[in-house]
Amino acid sequence: MFLDKMKDRIGDFEGKIGICYIDIKTGAGFTAGNCDVFPASGIIKLLILIEAFKRLNEGQIKKDDVYILKADDYPKTREKSFSALEHIHIGAELTLEDLYKLNVIISDNMAFNILLKLFGKDAVNDTLQEFGFRKTRINRAINDYAEMNKGVQNLVSVQEMANLLLRMYEGQIISNAASKEMLEILCEHQKNTPLTYNFLESMKIAHQSGYDDNEIHDMGIVYGDNPFILCMASSVPNTKNAESVMRDITMMCYQNSNKENPKFRTESENSDSVWEIFA
User: What span, in angstroms and rounded, lies between the C-alpha atoms of 57 and 264?
Assistant: First the structure.
């Protein structure tokens, strides 16, 4: 019944869409849409965060280890992107904690690329393999145009990410303490996205999003009184339509998990917030 409503809302979707929903309290869940694996876009920033915490847990790195920005860290082609670091001078000192937090909280592309260079994509993929994730992969840096022109893509599985977030919620990714701290960082993710759009700022949402020309992804945990996991990804010619569908699906999932005490925006508040949306 609920799944049927969700499929009705997706309807004859123009493009690819994948949805995975888990009601944490009941354990009930479903998948919907016509695709599971997508170009990863910004979702890969969650994967590098996990690798950082694995190395912290193993004592390979420390939070206060210093990294000095180098000339070759900066993008060779300047374009509008999600990055604050590219506007900071060469030689600036940051800690590894600074880097992995910027990577998630403001989705900083340069911070991600520095961490990927430090850790190596093979090591990150080995960690994913250890956790049983076989479809989700980091294959290149962000905006590596040489690799992009060869068709090399980073990949994310909607179902694997839902499983990852459930295990993180249950304290099973790296350690209970690491899982908790990673979720706290994900709660600071600053983009207004389909998962956050309908809710008041008091709503706790741990998530990572990804935006490219034809991609919109949003994956996370909406806490509420009865938390649920919702992972959504789309590859579409019309991202505005995809964003609308995802907002509606988020509200349907919230109302399914939280029959009482709603904490979502009024129509007026939604109107006021539309200018904050990242297109």
Answer: 37
Taking the CA atoms of 232, 101, 131 and 183 in sequence, report the sign of the dihedral they define: negative
266: left (phi over 0), alpha (psi -120 to 50) or beta: beta
Distance from C-alpha of 66 to C-alpha of 98, rounded to nearest angstrom: 9
For residue 26, count CB atoms less than 10 angstroms from its CB and return exposed for 0-12, middle for 13-18, buried for 19 or more: exposed
CATH fold for domain 2-276: Beta-lactamase (3.40.710)
CA pseudo-torsion sign 32, 35, 41, 46: positive
Q: How far is CA 50 from CA 29, 115, 171, 179, in A?
A: 24, 11, 13, 9
Beta-carbon contacts of 87 under 8 Å, excluding residues fewer than 6 positions away, are none
- The amino acid present at 137, given as its one-letter code, is R
Q: pLDDT tens for the chain, 279 residues: list them.
A: 788 888 899 988 889 999 999 999 999 989 999 999 999 999 999 999 999 999 999 999 999 999 999 999 999 876 666 689 999 999 999 999 999 999 999 999 999 999 999 999 999 999 999 999 999 999 999 999 999 999 999 999 999 999 999 999 999 999 999 999 999 999 999 988 999 999 998 999 999 999 988 999 999 999 989 999 999 999 998 888 999 999 999 999 999 998 755 555 433 343 333 223 222
Each domain of the chain, given as residue ranges in start order, spans 2-276
- Show the tokens assigned to 56: 């912290």
DSSP code for 264: B
